[in-house]
Design brief:
The protein has 791 residues and is of the alpha+beta class. The chain has 21 helices and 40 strands. It folds into six domains: 2-37 and 155-182, Phenylalanyl-tRNA Synthetase, Chain B, domain 1 (2-Layer Sandwich), CATH 3.30.56.10; 45-149, Nucleic acid-binding proteins (OB fold (Dihydrolipoamide Acetyltransferase, E2P), Beta Barrel); 195-396, Phenylalanyl-tRNA Synthetase, Chain B, domain 3 (3-Layer(bba) Sandwich); 407-472, 2-Layer Sandwich (Phenylalanyl-tRNA Synthetase, Chain B, domain 1), CATH 3.30.56; 489-685, Bira Bifunctional Protein, Domain 2 (BirA Bifunctional Protein, domain 2), CATH 3.30.930.10; 701-789, Ferrodoxin-fold anticodon-binding domain (Alpha-Beta Plaits), CATH 3.30.70. Helices cover 27% and strands 27% of the residues.
C-alpha cells in the first residue's frame, strides 16, 4: 500500500516531515517507509516545447526537432512516433542522468547533432511506458524543473500492512490515524451531486441471488459521458500511488478506491443485454473472459455479476472484457458493492487473478462506505466526463450490517496495560479514530464497520495504546499481573523429552499429520482413519493414527539418500476416529544402522537395548515411575523382541524390532528398532517437583555378584529379587556384564551385577554387608537356580 505524502497532508494539515510521519505511523503499528517515484537526479530535466519537427534524412523513424527550454533553442533528435510540433514535453538536457544511469551527452545521429533527449515515462523512471514520449498539458510552464513543477518529487509513504489492518488500505484510513496522532482534524473532500430529473431505477434493477456472498450491491447511471484523458492532478495522484492512469472514468474509480478503501467498477451500460444486475454463483463449466483478455472456466466458487443474461464481471475481482469502458462508451453503470472475503478468496484462487479490488475485499472492506464511494465517484465522472448524473442509487441491501458494540472498562484497560490513562483520554483517542463512545460509567463503544478485527475489550485496549504510544507502558523486569501466562505443563514436558533424547544422540523429525491410507493400514490397527475432504495428493488423504508412520517414512527417505545410521524421535499428534474425533500426542523412537568408528575402536550395531536405554533415561530425567517390559506379540514387530511397556501395571507403549516385510513397505532393507509411548499417560504419571536429598554422610560399601542362570531367566526378575532381599541397606543395583559362551555351557548366560550398600545413619561393618550380600546370593540360588561365580 502506497500513498503520496501530499495526499495525507491535504486531508490532515500536519507540519511533520515525510520521515517524521513515517516514524509515527510505524510506532502506531503500521510499518512505513519513505520512498520517491524515481531515483534519478532531478537536475537538467525541464519542461520544454517542440518548436520545429521534421524527418532526419535517410531515416524512417528519427525526427529532427528544435526544442526550447525557455531561454535557448536546442537541437534534439527523437525516435518516438508521437513527437510533433507545438507539444509540451520533458527535455533532458546535456548533463542530465536518466533511469538506468544513462547520461545525456552531445551526440550526432545520421549526421544530425542532438544536444538532449525528449523523454518517455520509462526513461524518467516513473512507469514502464516506452510507447512514445510523455506529452504534457499545453499549459505546462516551459523552462521550469519538470519533477518539481509537476509534483512528481513528492515523497511516497509505503505501508507494510498486517492482514488485520484493512482499515489502512486507503487515504482516509491512514489520515484517520494521523488525525488522532497529531490532534488535528481530518477534512474530507467536498463534492456536489447534481442529478437530472430521470430515475436510476428506470434504467436498472438489482437482484442478489446469494446475499451471504454479496450482502450489498449498489448502482448509479451516468449518461452522455465523454471518455478521455484524465487531468494531470488525477494522473499524478495515481502514479504516486502505484497505479497506471488509463482514462478519466477508470482513473476516477481507482482514485476513489484509494481514497475511501472501497473498490468500484464502471461498466459500459450499452453493452448490457438486459437492463438489470443479477449477482449469482457461476455454473459449473461456465466460460467468462476477464478484462485482461483471458478466458476462464468457472465453478460455483466464483461469484458473477450478470446483466440477467450473461456475465459482465467477477464479483470483487475483475470486470469482463465485453462490458469494458472504451473511448466509444457513452453511458456508464457504476458499481459499488460489498463482497464476502471468503467468497472473494475462493474466486481469486480459482481464477488465479489478483487485483487491487480483490485485495481489499479479501481483507475486509466497509459495507457502509458504499453510498459515499459511489456518490463521490459519480460526481467526479459527471464533472470530468461532462456527463449527466441520473437521479438516485439503486441499492440492494437485504440485511444491513450494523456496527458492533463493545463494553470497555477503563480500569481494566489500565490493569491490562499497566498504564494510568484517564477515562477522558481513552474517549478522546477512540473518538479521534471515529469510534462511537457513550460514557455510562463504563464506556459503550460502537466499533465502525471499516474495521472487522475489533470484537472485544482487549482489542480496544490495543487500539488505545498503539495510538497513545507504547512508551506509555511502564518497563518491568518480571512477568506478573493478569497478562502473565505460565508455561503449559505439557509444553514443558515436551521440552524435557526433546532435551533428553537429543542428549542421547537422537535427531527430531516432525509429523505432517497426513498419511497414505495403504501404508498406514499396514502398521496401524485403527480402522477407518479420518479422511481429508480435499486432499493435496492421493497418498496423503487420511490423518495419521500412529507416529510410527512418520518414523518409517523418515527412515526410508534418509536411507534412500545413503544416510543409513539413524537415531530418530518424534513428538507428534495422532488423530483417532470417534464422535467426536480424538487427538492425542505420541512419542516415537527409531534406531537403525550403527555407531561410527572412532579412536576408541570400531563402531557397533544399534539395536533393541540402545532404544530401551534411551527410554529409561527419559523416564529417569522426567521423574517417571520405573518401567516394566512384558513380552507381547505385535503384528509389525519380530516376536522374539516384541514387548509392551508397562508403568504401574498399565500399558503405555511398545518396543521391538520391526518385521522385515513391514520395513520393506517403506523401502528399508536393514534392521529397524522402534519404540512408541503414549504421551498423555506419561504426563499423567509424572511425579511432582524434584525432592532434594542431601549428599550421603557415610561411605558406600560396593560389592559385585556374578551368577550363571538359564537363558530363559529374565534380568528384570533377578534385579527385583536382589532389591527385595537387599532391604534398606541396598542403595543401587546395576547389571554391568552379560556373557554367553561354551565356558558356561549351552542354554546358559552369565550376569554380573554391581551393588552399593550404604546406611544414612552410620558406617557399615564389613560383616553386616557380607551377611546381606550372602542372603541375596542364597535367594538367587533358591529362586532361579543360579550358580554363583567366584571372581
Amino acid at each position: 500500500m502506497q500513498l503520496p505524502y501530499s495526499w495525507i497532508k491535504e486531508l490532515v494539515d500536519i507540519d511533520w516531515s515525510p520521515e517524521e510521519l513515517a516514524d509515527r505511523l510505524t510506532l502506531s503499528g503500521a510499518e512505513t517507509e519513505v520512498e520517491y517515484l524515481t531515483e534519478i537526479p532531478f537536475d537538467n530535466i525541464v519542461i520544454g516545447e517542440v518548436l520545429e519537427c521534421g524527418p532526419v534524412p535517410e531515416s524512417d523513424h528519427l525526427s529532427k526537432c528544435l526544442v526550447t527550454d525557455g531561454t535557448e533553442k536546442i537541437p534534439v533528435v527523437c525516435g518516438a512516433p508521437n513527437v510533433a510540433k507545438g507539444q509540451k514535453i520533458v527535455l533532458a538536457k546535456v548533463g542530465a542522468e536518466l533511469a538506468g544511469g544513462f547520461k545525456i551527452k552531445k551526440a550526432k545521429l545520421r549526421g544530425v547533432e542532438s544536444h538532449g533527449m525528449i523523454c518517455s515515462e520509462r526513461e524518467l523512471g516513473i512507469s514502464e511506458d516506452h510507447s512514445g514520449i510523455m506529452v504534457l498539458d499545453e499549459k505546462a510552464p516551459v523552462g521550469k524543473p519538470f519533477f518539481k513543477t509537476m509534483g512528481l518529487d513528492d515523497a511516497i509513504l509505503k505501508l507494510d500492512l498486517t492482514p488485520n489492518r484493512a482499515d489502512l488500505m486507503s487515504a482516509f484510513g491512514v489520515a484517520r490515524d494521523v488525525s488522532c496522532l497529531s490532534g488535528k482534524p481530518m477534512v474530507r473532500p467536498e463534492f456536489e451531486i447534481d442529478e437530472n430529473s430521470e430515475k436510476a431505477s428506470d434504467y436498472v434493477k438489482v437482484g442478489i441471488a446469494d446475499p451471504d456472498a454479496c450482502p450489498r450491491y449498489a448502482a448509479r447511471i451516468i449518461k452522455n459521458i465523454t471518455v478521455g484523458e484524465s487531468p494531470w492532478w488525477l494522473q499524478r495522484r495515481l502514479m504516486l500511488s502505484g497505479i497506471r492512469p488509463i482514462s478519466n472514468i477508470v482513473d476516477i474509480a481507482n482514485l476513489v478506491m484509494l481514497e475511501t478503501g472501497h473498490p468500484l467498477h464502471a461498466f459500459d451500460y450499452d453493452t448490457f443485454k438486459r437492463k438489470e444486475i443479477l449477482v449469482r454463483r457461476a455454473k459449473e463449466g461456465e466460460k467468462f473472459t476477464t478484462l485482461d483478455g483471458k478466458e476462464h472456466t468457472l465453478n460455483p466458487d466464483v461469484l458473477l455479476i450478470t446483466d440477467g443474461a450473461a456475465a459482465v464481471g467477477v464479483g470483487g475481482i475483475m470486470g469482463g472484457l465485453d462490458s469494458e469502458v472504451t473511448d466509444g462508451t457513452r453511458n456508464i453503470l457504476l458499481e459499488a458493492a460489498f463482497f464476502d472475503s471468503r467468497t472473494t478468496r475462493r474466486g481469486r484462487q480459482k481464477l488465479g487473478i489478483t487485483s487491487e479490488a480483490q485485495a481489499r475485499f479479501e481483507k475486509g472492506a466497509d459495507p457502509n462506505m458504499v453510498e459515499y464511494a459511489i456518490n463521490r465517484a459519480a460526481a467526479l465522472m459527471a464533472q470530468l466526463g461532462e456527463g449527466e448524473l441520473v437521479s438516485g442509487i439503486v441499492d440492494c441491501y437485504p440485511k444491513r450490517i450494523e456496527p458492533k458494540k463493545v463494553t470497555l472498562r477503563p480500569d481494566k484497560v489500565n490493569v491490562l496495560l499497566g498504564t494510568k490513562l484517564s477515562k477522558e483520554r481513552m474517549i478522546e483517542i477512540l473518538r479521534a479514530i471515529e469510534f462511537g463512545v457513550e460514557d455510562k460509567g463504563n464506556l459503550e463503544v460502537t466499533v465502525p464497520t471499516f474495521t472487522s478485527d475489533i470484537t472485544r475489550e482487549a482489542d480496544l485496549a490495543e487500539e488505545i495504546i498503539r495510538l497513545e504510544g507504547y512508551e506509555a507502558v511502564p518497563y518491568i523486569d518480571e512477568n506478573k499481573g493478569p497478562l502473565f501466562a505460565p508455561y503449559p505443563e505439557d509444553e514443558a514436558f515436551k521440552d524435557n523429552i526433546r532435551k533428553v533424547l537429543t542428549g542421547q544422540g537422537y535427531d527430531e523429525v516432525y509429523s505432517g499429520g497426513l498419511a497414505d491410507p495403504k501404508l498406514l493400514s499396514s502398521i496401524s490397527d485403527v480402522e477407518n482413519p479420518i479422511q481429508v475432504i480435499n486432499p493435496i495428493a492421493e497418498d496423503l488423504k487420511v490423518m495419521e493414527t500412529t507416529m510410527l508412520y512418520t518414523l518409517f517414512k523418515s527412515a526410508g527417505h534418509n536411507i534412500s539418500h545413503r544416510n543409513i545410521d539413524l537415531q530418530l524421535f518424534v513428538v507428534g499428534k495422532v488423530y483417532l476416529p470417534g464422535d467426536p474425533p480424538v487427538e492425542n500426542y505420541q512419542i516415537g523412537l527409531l534406531v537403525t544402522g550403527g555407531t561410527s568408528d572412532s579412536w576408541l575402536g570400531k563402531g557397533r550395531e544399534l539395536g533393541y537395548f540402545d532404544l530401551k536405554g534411551a527410554i529409561e533415561a527419559l523416564t529417569c530425567y522426567c521423574r517417571l515411575p520405573e518401567l516394566e517390559y512384558r513380552p507381547k506379540t505385535a503384528k509389525i514387530l519380530v516376536e522374539s523382541t516384541s514387548h509392551e511397556i508397562l508403568m504401574g501395571g498399565q500399558k503405555i507403549g511398545v518396543i521391538g524390532e520391526v518385521n522385515s516385510n513391514i520395513a520393506r513397505l517403506f523401502d528399508v532393507k536393514q534392521k529397524l528398532f522402534v519404540g512408541l509411548l503414549d504421551f498423555e499417560e506419561l504426563l499423567a504419571h509424572r511425579k511432582g517437583e524434584a525432592i532434594y536429598r542431601p549428599l550421603p554422610k557415610f561411605p558406600a560399601a560396593p560389592r559385585d555378584l556374578a551368577v550363571t542362570v538359564n537363558e530363559g531367566v529374565k534380568v528384570g526378575e533377578i534385579i527385583a529379587a536382589i532389591r527385595k532381599n537387599g532391604g534398606h541397606l541396598l542403595e543401587i543395583v546395576t547389571l554391568f556384564d552379560l556373557f554367553r559362551g561354551k565356558q558356561i555351557g549351552e542354554g546358559k548366560k552369565s550376569l554380573a551385577f554391581s551393588m552399593i550398600y550404604r546406611s544414612p545413619e552410620r558406617s557399615l561393618e564389613a560383616e553386616e554387608v557380607q551377611a546381606v550380600h550372602n542372603r541375596i546370593a542364597d535367594n538367587l540360588k533358591k529362586e532361579f537356580g543360579a550358580e554363583i561365580r567366584e571372581g
